[in-house]
């Protein structure tokens, strides 16, 4: 069993925010907007909000006044999210935020009173199957839309390609599926498990591919992502580090120089009751 890294770095979330915004699917948001009530204030619960990037992206795309309830177990990240709230709604209506320290796996339907929408971004892979099942059950019982964006699905493409890429990728995916004190994490299986879990409850899910596509303009993010990717792979696979030392240094130099195109596959899921 690998002991969990319990905290997500705010600096990492800041660095990825523009790429996340570029990757999320706008067509799902159009569908969502048509479905949401046009009267009253929308109450939106963002699960695992981190520094609040989902709200900064989504709130200005939806019309009407909105109250965002931001859930995270990391109070330092919640402080940042509260200090950097979203801009106004698409029609200029006000948007307010309410940080709420929470373990999202412990939330019950009563914690979502008056919810108009539940969102999460880059969260599902961090859950175990039991935790996801519990969360889906709560979401399905609310009868409101659910937008789950940017779940990694385990495909990484690097250009130019290298024969060692697939070996590192497999070790990284195994790390994402690692056993923890809470059980085995879903990692790249989370999006498919969520679709299946909703469908078993008779709830249809719209799925869109939302890859990160990092090129020279995103060299800083590509280099940081590569460092984390290879670090997790080496943590997972005993002996890999010594075998790929020169590969790791060469690829990192390419990423820093903007000479490595990186595509990381994700999926966005939308449930409209
Ligand atoms: C990869 S970050 C994504 C943050 C944000 N949604 C975004 O897209 O930038 C995952 C976030 O989920 C939070 N998180 C993970 N498991 C959680 C749990 N069980 N309860 C509450 N927050 C959790 C972490 O603290 C972290 O802020």
How would you characterize the overall build of this protein?
The protein is α/β, with parallel strands linked by helices. Helices cover 40% and strands 23% of the residues. The chain has helices at 10-23, 26-35, 53-58, 75-83, 129-142, 165-176, 190-200, 219-236, 240-243, 245-256; strands at 42-47, 66-72, 95-101, 117-121, 146-159, 179-180, 183-184, 205-209, 212-214, 261-271. Helix 3 (53-58) links the parallel strand 1 and strand 2. Helix 6 (165-176) packs across helix 8. The structure holds S-adenosylmethionine (SAM). The site of S-adenosylmethionine has 21 residues, from helix 1, helix 3 and strand 2.
